[in-house]
Amino acid sequence: MTISQGKRLSLGLPAALMGLWLGCGTPIVPTKSEPVPAPTTPEPDQGPTPSVPGAEAPPASCAHGLEARASVDVARGASAFFYEDRPSLGRLDAGAGYVYLDHDNQGAFVARLEASGAAKSVREIVFPDKHERSHVVGAFRGSDVVVASVVYHAQQEADIELVRLDAQDRPLWSARVDPSPRLDGTPAIAWGKDEIAVAWTRGPYPMHESVRVALVDANTGKVKRTFELSTGENPGVPSIVWDGEAYWVGWHSRETRGTIEIRRLTENGLSGVGATLQGGVNPFLLPTPTGLAVAWDQDHKIWLAVLDAAGHPKLAPRVVATHPDPIASPRKPVLAWDGVRFAVAYEAHFHASVIVARDPEALIAVVDPNGGAAPPLPLHDKDSSGEMPAVLWTGKEWLVVYNRDRLQKGKKPEVVAARLACREAPAPSETTPAGPCDARTRPAPEALRLQPNTGAASVLSLDDGGWAALRLEKEEMIFVRVDREGKTTTRAVLPAAAGRREPTLARVPGGFAAAWIDEQGGVEVGRIDEAGAMRKTTRLPGDPMTSRPGLAWTSKGLVVAYARGGAVVTALLDGAARIVSQPAPAARFPFQPGDCALGHGPKGLLVACVTGTERTETSVIRVARLDDTGKAIGAPSLASGPYALLRNPSVIGTADGFLIAATGPFAREVITIELGPNGEVRRPERKLLSSYGYGAFGAAVTGKDIVVFGIDGQTLAERTVCPE
């Protein structure tokens, strides 16, 4: 198994301010702290309470993710307008309320929903001001709704306007908030104790310069106070919530490389309490009795953290959602809470590239109190699209509302509500691992940590439960061996050689065999003894297209397989790395082979290589049977479906066949395939999503488990992945 160096994450600040999960984290820098009461139970518009009359206790676990119970159209065939920041869904009396701006007629609507998601009423919001408007958001309390929107008065002038609606959605009052000749941007709104708070951005067209907050009397609409929270930092759309005693406001500052700023605000102004998240956009805040939850998107991942009343992390920043497609951009997360766990819903957009563009998706995942995320559930059907999800805990189930097939050619757009519940066990068709499967990450031994200048690494699982690794750092190649407790037993710096790449490691009697590619594309094979000393090296001819070789020890010696001249060639060496038979073509695949791996099974060897397909942006795994000398047995065959950017195959022999693992697009997923003794595909491949995100990773099969290794920041992490 080989790991090539990927994008490094800057860790930046002291570790005391960071939580590392999967080997990396996003720093949180608390601002000035002062004694502040802990957040209390959120008001209905801010999120679910931990106990609701008649509510069922949430299940103890949601490790297997969610399942949809029902879905209904809540907007009578309408679709919400695309540039809404996030749709508004909140509790209203015994049901819920949903505010949206219709795409076709630009009218704003409020839908009152049953707990099932079915619409009791859908009414257009009548604004006293008839100017053009956009970015309609709402807050909910009791039977009333307060709606904020941007209203345009001139080409480069727009203000924030509020309107309060009664139980029949009739306006009780409306108010212009802090009017200005400048352009006011997308608002966020929260219902406090005695007033309504609205946060927004302001600046000269097309840029914004400041974040502002106004406190408005809930009974009259009169503005009581306004605050300017930031200036000159080109802020993004804010999020504002009420924790029972004060407001929390978060926004993305684009100044320099960008941060997420979070501040606590009382009726007298900023309290001096808050935090700064390094990087990230689109923050979403949710108060709970356990702390302030913050979700955001960063580097094509969805992140989550929980802060205490002083802005310090109670749950350190962690990735809770990635996507297997390298062109996907998961973004704009929203949160809800069931009293135990968080639900995070988000959309994923796909941008045209050399791979393939796809319709947008709406997804949701459940995160346990320790930050462990269940597999995400796509909210839409396989042949549909989804956007703009919002989520709420009803006391019994999750209620999610999202846009389905908005503007998709030939399809009817809908705003859809879905009821979701925890799926407590795999479906009958799924395979349950024979033994316990720990899906959480444990840090790799210190000896396997990779330095920032590491070029690549190969990691090998040993029979005694330990690990061996061969890694490249600058001009050095380093061999490391650790025992099952993580203690380093061997560390040796091998002779320097410029231009080495793609190391591979295999166990042989009395030591290890190592292989790598040199500057000319040749394959060098070395013999390493138990003490880590290189005893012998032999060079096999290659070409510029040579990719990672495979190694396997058989009854006849050491077989080496690699791509050369458009074919997979094999050579046989003895235990001292001396050539027994020169490289000769063993298998010709329809397309140029790339990375290869060898595994020894009940009937000889299996070579598995990544190759191209008819579509240049995809790749597959093809396999061929070999005898113990490396000669072909039968014709090559196709073992996997097409994927983008497959790499790092690994093969192990099982009692009745073989098991293959490889990393998928940008190492966002692991592909595993079970084969029979003659190389026949016995079980379709399983996709095992990885939480590592971007970077270059490798998968090593060890018995019935699959271990995923990844370079994340400066750490090599190890994880046993459970099948879905």
Automatic annotation (TrEMBL):
PROSITE patterns: PROKAR_LIPOPROTEIN
Biased composition (Pro residues): 36-51
Region (Disordered): 32-60
Protein name: Uncharacterized protein
Species this chain originates from: Polyangium fumosum
